[in-house]
């Protein structure tokens, strides 16, 4: 009887290990499209704003030539694409794959915005990489903003800052002259922005960097996130930061250093903003 119990225990342990490995492989290599809907009084009636956010790719490729990822991006029918840093890893040797992805994206979407992450600044060829993005018609926002006309009734501000964790941000410069009457989106690779800067006129802050907390334990939450350490406060999802200001942290697509995700599937995000009285 005791031997049967031991065998059953061993088999149960093997099954649990295999299931955990399978979950890690799935969450790390199969992405999903996360959809969020929010409202704001600055969005005119009968108007909507659709933003597709990509973050923390780290030069990862999903399948042959990113076919599935590109299909998902194209089917989103967004008004704009925002890339919130770490397109490449600090150790990326060549950019052929990521530039090919960017070229396909800009062939579909007129408005593609990008801000730097910490891995771009850790890379020895930061500036040639940024120039390569500009040459491919990506709007690189480095501590600056631009006004964007979505349709006849909707104009917005898009503000972008260089990575906070790399001490490259110039927030005052980025917001200088922003029309606060318009709906304003801030692109900041790291959500740590909200701890360091208060009362900035951004209605929605889009960030990444955390990789969703890398590993999530049911009933406990995320274990660790870059810049926030153990049990991070802002690991992924939507947060209210003061009066009428929201922070959205995307889980991201790729991995770095420890190349695993667990109960924390890779994703891209489609965020829709509509009118609120």
UniProtKB/TrEMBL annotation:
Keyword check for Hydrolase, yes or no: yes
Query: Its Gene Ontology molecular function terms?
Result: metal ion binding; UDP-2,3-diacylglucosamine hydrolase activity
Q: Which InterPro entries does the entry link to?
A: Calcineurin-like_PHP (IPR004843), Metallo-depent_PP-like (IPR029052), Metallophosphoesterase_sf (IPR051158)
Q: Which UniProt keywords apply?
A: Hydrolase, Metal-binding
Calcineurin-like phosphoesterase domain residues: 50-212
> Looking at the keywords, is Hydrolase present?
yes
One of this protein's Pfam families, by short name?
A: Metallophos
Stored CDD domains: MPP_YkuE_C
A biological process term (GO) from this entry = lipid A biosynthetic process
Entry superkingdom: Bacteria
| Gene Ontology cellular component list | membrane
Protein name in the entry: Calcineurin-like phosphoesterase domain-containing protein
Q: Which organism is it from?
A: Halobacillus alkaliphilus
